[in-house]
Amino acid sequence: MLRIAVTGSPGVGKSTVVAKVAKKLAGQPGFKIGGIQTAEIREEGQREGFSILDLATGKTGTLSHIKGSGPRLGKYHVNPETLERIGAGALRNALSCDFIVIDEIGPMELISGSFVAAVEEVLESDKPVLAVLHHSSRHPLARKVRKEFEVLTVNVKNRDELPEKIYNCFASQPL
Predict the structure, then answer these.
(1) Residues that bind ATP, according to the entry (predicted)?
(2) What tens digit of pLDDT does each residue of 63-120 get?
(3) Residue 32 counted as an annotated binding residue
(4) Which CATH superfamily hosts domain 3-171?
(5) Nearest-angstrom CA–CA distance, 104 and 86
(6) CB neighbours of 82 closer than 8 A, spacing ≥ 6?
(7) Is 54 marked within a binding site?
(8) Is 8 annotated as a binding residue?
(9) Is residue 160 annotated as involved in ligand binding?
(10) Which residues pair with 120 in a beta bridge?
(11) What gap in Å lies between CA 53 and CA 36, rounded to an integer?
């Protein structure tokens, strides 16, 4: 069972790398991908927050935004209800899929005990996993992922070739 996590500086392209791998794997006939994907919410060229997407169902919601009332992390307010309903729910449902994506295991997501528990369920499964890991998190779950996964650091020099490299690793495994 192959498990890879990508890490790197904010904005370097970690989520883009994972999205490219997931898209290519999803193109295989009869292959089902589950889990979550995050994306920036931009307004007038400025990052205003992050959305979260359930890859299996297409459900989406606002994970965090600069305008909000949830717990504050940096300049963003995290939406715990969306994180639990879409994030944790998508990870639990992904246990019935062939491949699981977790974008991201970071401070915003780790606010939710339900999300942490869902990630732990994924880690206890025998499913192949591709995750984005916050570069400096010291949370016990992040430490566990660093210990159990092959961790690749995304940077400006390798971010264009990493999706193909990671795809080939998973494609060469019996999924």
Answers:
(1) 8-15, 99-106
(2) 999 998 899 999 999 999 999 999 999 999 999 999 999 999 999 999 999 999 999 9
(3) no
(4) P-loop containing nucleotide triphosphate hydrolases (3.40.50.300)
(5) 13
(6) 52, 61, 62, 63
(7) no
(8) yes
(9) no
(10) none
(11) 5
**103 assigned to a ligand binding site:** yes
Is 11 flagged in the annotation as binding? yes
172 is in an annotated binding site: no
Per-residue pLDDT for 174 more than 80? no
pTM (predicted TM-score): 0.94
Amino acid letter for position 140? P
pLDDT for 27 beyond 90: no
Distance CA 123, CA 118 (A): 9
Helical ranges in 12-102 per DSSP H: 14-26, 80-82, 89-93
Beta bridge mates, 99? 33
How far is Cα of residue 116 from the mean position of the Cα atoms in its chain?
13
100 annotated ligand binder = yes
Q: Write the CA distances from 42 to 49, 65, 124, integer angstroms.
A: 7, 10, 35
